[in-house]
Amino acid sequence: MVIPELKAVIFIFNDIKSLILSSIGLNSIELKELVINALEDTKGKDITVIDVRDKTDVTDMMIMVSGTSSRHVKSLADNLVKTCKDAGIQPLGTEGEEQSEWILVDLAEIVVHLMMPSARQFYDLERLWETAANARVEEALVEKE
């Protein structure tokens, strides 16, 4: 059950995300293509896109990518942020740049996880979000009964 105040915050957050993209003339599909192109330009490995719109209100998509070294992960993140800024998109935040094992770049409608293969395998975000989807489906089925 979602608390009414939290619902209001989520509603406002979603409006802000839409305003950010519409103000620069991009939709989420175009932003996804921009992100993937930036990651491919710097030789990102195993790029995975997960649509999480039906699983969370925080973001629409998550993109996971692996780098071959911590220096490569850092350069993937740097290039992504530069590409976004050049396109008029200011990332909401970045985390993890100090150690560069796992860097998160928040672009509002898309959250990008840039990871070393060992961190990606350990945290297994793809499986985590798949499990969340299955749990939500099961909850919906139970509620209908």
Describe the structure.
By secondary structure, this protein is of the alpha+beta class. It has a single domain (4-144), classed as Beta Polymerase, domain 2 (2-Layer Sandwich), CATH 3.30.460.10. The protein has 5 helices and 5 strands. It has helices at 4-24, 28-41, 70-86, 117-123, 125-144, and strands spanning 45-51, 61-66, 93-95, 102-106, 110-115. Strands 1-2-5-4-3 form a 5-stranded mixed sheet, with helices on both faces. It starts with a helix and ends with a helix.
Number of helices: 5
Strand content: 15-25%
What is the assigned CATH homologous superfamily? Beta Polymerase, domain 2
The CATH architecture comes to: 2-Layer Sandwich
Strand order across the largest sheet? 1-2-5-4-3
In terms of per-residue confidence, which ranges show pLDDT below 50 for 5 or more consecutive residues?
none
> Per CATH, what is the topology?
Beta Polymerase, domain 2
Number of separate structural domains? 1
| Helical content class | 40-55%
CA(first)-CA(last) distance: 17 Å
- What is the average per-residue confidence, as pLDDT, rounded to a whole number? 81
Order of helices and strands, N to C? HHEEHEEEHH
Overall form: globular
Rg result: 16 Å
How many strands? Answer: 5
Task: Summarize the biggest pleated sheet.
Answer: 5 strands, mixed
What is the CATH level 1 assignment? Answer: Alpha Beta
Secondary structure class reads alpha+beta
